[in-house]
Amino acid sequence: MKEKHSLRNLTVIGIMLVLFAALAVLNISLGSVKIPFSETTKIFFGKGTNDTFQELIWRIRLPRMTAAIILGGALALSGFLLQTFFNNPIAGPFVLGISSGAKLAVALLMVYVIGRNGVVTSPAMILSAFAGALLSMGFVLLVSQRIQKSSMLIVAGVMIGYICSAITDFVVTFASDASIVNLHNWSKGSFSGASWEDVGIMAVVVLVTSVIVFFLSKPVGAYQMGESYAKSIGLNIKLFRASLVVLSSFLAACVTAFAGPVSFVGIAVPHLVKSALKTSKPLIVIPTCFLGGAIFCLGCDLIARTVFAPTEISISSVTAIFGAPIVIYIMVKRRSAVR
Amino acid sequence: MINKRILSLLLYCILFFCLFGCSSGEQDSDNKLGNGWVPSGSLPLQYATQFEVDYYDGGYSLISVSDGSKFLVVPENAPVPDGVSKNITVLQQPIDNVYLVATASMCLFDALESLDCISLSGTKSEDWYLQNARTSMENGEIIYAGKYSAPDYELILSSGCRLAIESTMITHTPEVKKKLEELGVSVIVDQSSYEKHPLGRTEWMKLYAVLVGKEALAESLFREQTQLLEAVLGLESTGKTVAFFYMSPSGYAVARKSGDYVTKMIELAGGEYIFQNLGDSETATSTVNLEMESFYATARDADFIIYNSTVAGGLTSMEEFLGINTLLADFKAVKEGNVWCTGKNMFQETTQLGLMISDIHEMLCDDGTLAQLNFMYKLT
Known about the structure:
The complex is a heterodimer. By secondary structure, chain A is mainly alpha-helical. Chain A has one domain: ABC transporter involved in vitamin B12 uptake, BtuC. Chain A has 14 helices and no strands. Chain A has helices spanning 2-29, 37-44, 51-86, 98-115, 122-146, 150-173, 177-186, 196-215, 217-224, 227-232, 237-259, 265-277, 282-306, 315-338. Chain A starts with a helix and ends with a helix. By secondary structure, chain B is α/β, with parallel strands linked by helices. Helices cover 36% and strands 19% of the residues of chain B. In chain B, strands 11, 12, 13, 14, 15, 16 and 17 form a 7-stranded mixed beta sheet that branches. In chain B, a hairpin with a 5-residue loop joins strand 11 (240-247) and strand 12 (253-256). In chain B, helix 8 (215-233) runs parallel beside helix 14 (353-364). The longest helix of chain B has 29 residues, at 2-30. Chain B is globular. The N and C termini of chain B lie far apart (92 Å).
């Protein structure tokens, strides 16, 4: 039985790696500017002959692709942690009001800066989104100290989301048209404009957090068996719950800061991965979730930037088209299981 | 036999409807008012295609807008003619207490020295870059009455407003238009944004001139702009390419659609818009979210960059421009110091599109000595 599981895991991971490699090649090779594959290969090995093509691949396609891999992985991992924490398959980074907090902070920044005829710079956007997301997370943490029931914590998270959205709407009511347009564009999400500098920062934040999450595999596995079991093996539940919220929020905040709100990846990917592996064991699910998120975002971003090229569509539009049916499937399947 | 009779009857019916249809069509073109009055003349238009004006004896004017709406302007103290078609809205002069929501129309009223006709605005004081409009609002002569989607109906009614001038944005909130009309406020939807030629937009001042009775002034102001255009059209094309865009906070470039009035202004000024066949010319949108690599591959070779500061915020230096995205440093226009930024007033100055074209032409012919134009400034 165990051997059968291992074989299945190996097969799934093997298929995912092939898919990942194929999508990575497609992401590097395809774009609104047609670059011959032979030239792409030459450029990749430092023997390119066309300067423009070289710049396109090294400074636009590669950093963007790397950002999609890192942030996609982060989103899926964040979703897995929240689903474990809430014991709810449709919990995701949006549930705790993280994206709404980030959006509020970005709205305030835009209204303030553009209102004074200034320019909203990328670092300022990233910092404000991160600060907004962490503020929401801090509030959830405070609430979690007083509320033990996970379902009530979801309600608290949703309420924070509502409060942040209401304040954002209030700010937007008095904002100039330019601020509204900018906020609207940002809130649809995009991996466009990612630079190597951004990739460096997101890589440090996401990879360090992911490694910590991986090392928490054992306590996560124990928590999945129920709180009383986790307590019986000596797990500090209060500290563990706080760690889950902090880590998942940190990952989601990083994504929102660099790419804006990207929907459905955090909900859909962990479910797909668990279904494919037929296990919820964190030791195997955590790295596979990261890989799954990367694959999902690579595919969606490829569609977002090539289908209507040179016009770019928002990443959230694509992730929603592919992710929403999965969420519906989860709900329908869950309902059938209850019956 | 019966079949023959039925066939004959059918033929008679078809013939009757054909004749009836033809005659009613003829009657419509001559009888636009619906009461048998025949127009004595029409307003000559050079570029505008989205409206027309017919004149009638007694100083009456019929404005027909491309969205199908018609407005009969009745001179002060003159009676409203009998039998006017029900689909024609009657506007009795003097036209005052106007609620002006179409931002681009404010400068046309300003140029016609008729700001006093406007008492309510859909734009706040701080968002006006037209000095006279801003001053009027600061002095309380024009009051903010809510934006297009959320007008303050109580304020509009209590101020005695009878006419609202909306932009095509109102088509997204048809319930607002319906409510205004229900309250007795007539609504003109400014269709100037659909004009194909830039000066078609400017020519809309002739429509507003009919409302405020200043046709001669409008004609003279419009002629000034056409003369500026003709002066540029007489010159040879510079062959220089221009990229007009801004960078969105999400990191992609937002460029004007090919064939848009801004790109037409660049072409009329003797330049060439670098993005060819961009966007669907049939759609109402004026901009396209451009994928970064396509933008980079095309715009890096542009001779000139005009950065649209209206949405993205005003830039003060080249350093600030390069801070938006490091890739911009590779662009030819950056290397040659040919990066210009639009002033915030550019899209509110519909009156002076001829001057804008002239500005772009001056930019294209710049030998490095220019730093400031009427609607643009150079980034250094």
